[in-house]
Amino acid sequence: MPMTYQGTVTLITGASAGLGVEFARQWAARGADLVLVARRLDRLEELAAELEKRHGVTAHAIAADLARPGAAAALRAELDARGITVHSLVNNAGFGSHGPFVGQDVAQINEMIQLNVTAVAELTRAFLPDLVSDGRGALVNVASAAAYQPTPAMAVYGAGKAFVLNFTEAVGYETRHSPLRVLAVSPGPVSTEFFDVVGSRDAAVGRMATPEQVVTATRRALERAKTPPSIVAGLANRVSAAAAALTPRRLTLAVSGRILKA
């Protein structure tokens, strides 16, 4: 079954900026209705109005802090109350930090794990039965090139993205007999607000991609006759990920630590 946009609803998290905005624009341009989720309602409403006017789709703006425990269940309940059925899910929300783990704030660590790991698992579990049952859409989880090796100075972020990568591939295998497309996408540094939140450009390793480049690569992978379990966006990032898999772990760790200025 080909990837379907028209007549379906796609839920996009982290939709107020960066990759989330670009996912919304590219999906809306192909006729998908949207549920846009992030904390900043004003930005979501502005984007929803833009997409409805430009593409004639329906876009729902829902403010939610997915870093709070129980947020995934609350979002599912909200959509059920509105009578909205989701056919595709893009788990894009996330943030990182840079610096030695020993000095990081415990509350921020917990918030990062809740958003980057727990919310991805809980949202996937909440909506996966509907996605599999319908089968026209996709489950897309945004991982990172950081998932392919340890990341000193970004220990929690990198480990969380390794979870997203492995989790998504496993779910994809479990649902392989359904027509649902399941994809983990791992970009390198992207020109978004991410590094403003991180607070350091030392975490930006390699050439910056644009959100359009990353989302276009994601969409093209989904539209293949056979969707791969995961992709690394950008040639240099693919080479780096492949090299990490072939290099002794101790050497990979040392190189990563020097690059990230740990």
Structural description of this entry:
By secondary structure, the protein is α/β, with parallel strands linked by helices. The protein has 9 helices and 7 strands. The model has no long low-confidence stretch (mean pLDDT 93). The termini are far apart. It is globular and about 50 Å long.
Quick summary:
By secondary structure, this protein is α/β, with parallel strands linked by helices. It has helices at 18-29, 41-55, 71-82, 106-134, 155-174, 194-198, 211-222, 235-246, 249-259, and strands spanning 9-13, 33-38, 59-63, 88-91, 138-142, 181-187, 230-233.
Please provide the count of β strands: 7
- Main beta sheet: strand number and arrangement? 7 strands, parallel
> What is the CA-based Rg, rounded?
18 Å
Summarize the helix and strand pattern as letters.
Answer: EHEHEHEHEHEHHEHH
Strand content: 5-15%
Number of helices: 9
Give the overall shape, derived from the CA principal axes.
globular
How does the helix and strand content classify structurally? alpha/beta
Distance between the termini: 46 Å
* Unreliable residue stretches: none
Helix content: 40-55%
The spatial strand order of the largest sheet comes to 3-2-1-4-5-6-7
Averaging pLDDT over every residue, what do you get?
93
